[in-house]
Amino acid sequence: MADLANYRDWLCDMDGVLINDGAIVPGADRFLERLRRTGRHFLVLTNNSLFTPAEVVAQLAVLGLEVEVDRVWTSALATAQFVANQRPEGTAFVIGRESVHRALADTGYRETADRPDYVVLGETWDYSFDDFATAVRAIEGGSHFVATNPEPTGPTPDGSLPGCGAMAALLEKATGVAPFFVGKPNSLMLREALGMLNASTHTSVMIGDRMETDVLAGVDAGLATILVLSGANDERDATRFPFRPSRVVKSVAELVDEL
Question: Rounded CA gap, 154 and 147, in Å?
């Protein structure tokens, strides 16, 4: 993957790639600007389903990184598209923040606790015992169980909080039904993103900072993959899995002059 000229479509993970520890990864702004100037298409991907694209854009703007709303692809949006494709204009019982509810509503889904087609679990800071009781009964009654992302914890300034993956494990334990996770490392999220860009796998790249999610999803989707060392993983991580990234770089800043 020495020559980047043939890669026209770019999928970029957000945390650890463009931002990290509440600041822009040095060079990330120049990287996105170079993608724009050279006419390349890109989407910023995040497994975090807490925020709408508009909220993500606002948070990035505070840090000094400009991204358009239609260039943000979240696990909430990917989950909504998945269920809408599987069962158009269906019904769902939804647990999650407004971002998840709005994503489902925008696809024409109607929310109900009465024999819904799907139980959709996303992320929120206000998980409710009553909601989980309703979800258990719905899944026992035959509703399909889908979750936005598998992360077991989420970081906060005060330490980790239970994440969507941990809460999904609670429902799985109670019902005996495993969830279908739409977010990475499921390559479905990437394939949906490629569809948004009308892109081919042969001209597309996935950039991420985690081998077990970003790179795995990219490899599974048949994309070229770039592991950046500006986030969670280091060079040793690039060699300890049975799959390998196409390339390892210190950060996206290293790619700017090659685009």
Answer: 15
Tokens for 184? 């990475």
pLDDT in tens, 112-138: 999 999 999 999 989 999 999 999 999
Q: Residue type at 224?
A: A
| Angle at the Cα of 220 from the Cα atoms of 219 and 225, rounded to 5 degrees | 20
| Alpha-carbon gap, residue 117 to 56, rounded angstroms | 29
Q: What is the pLDDT of residues 214-236, one digit of tens each?
A: 999 999 999 999 999 998 888 88
User: Is pLDDT of 1 > 80?
Assistant: no
- The pLDDT value recorded for residue 22 is 86
Question: What's 15's DSSP letter?
Answer: B
Contact (Cβ atoms closer than 8 angstroms) between residue 145 and residue 180 = yes
Catalytic residue among 13, 29, 209, 214: 13
What is the percent of the chain where pLDDT is above 70? Answer: 98
Q: What 3-state DSSP class applies to 224?
A: strand
Yes or no: say if 226 and 247 are a contact pair by the CB < 8 Å rule.
yes
Per-residue confidence at 6, pLDDT binned at 50, 70, 90? confident
Identify the structural domains of the chain with CATH numbers, from first to last: 9-47+185-258 (3.40.50.1000), 76-181 (3.40.50.1000)
Token pair, residue 217, equals 């999803």
131 is catalytic: no
Total-model pTM: 0.93
Strands 224-228 and 204-208: parallel
Question: In the annotation, is 15 catalytic?
Answer: yes
CA distance 165 to 213: 14
The maximal CA–CA distance of the chain, rounded, in angstroms, is 56
Which of 3, 9, 15, 220 is flagged as catalytic? 15
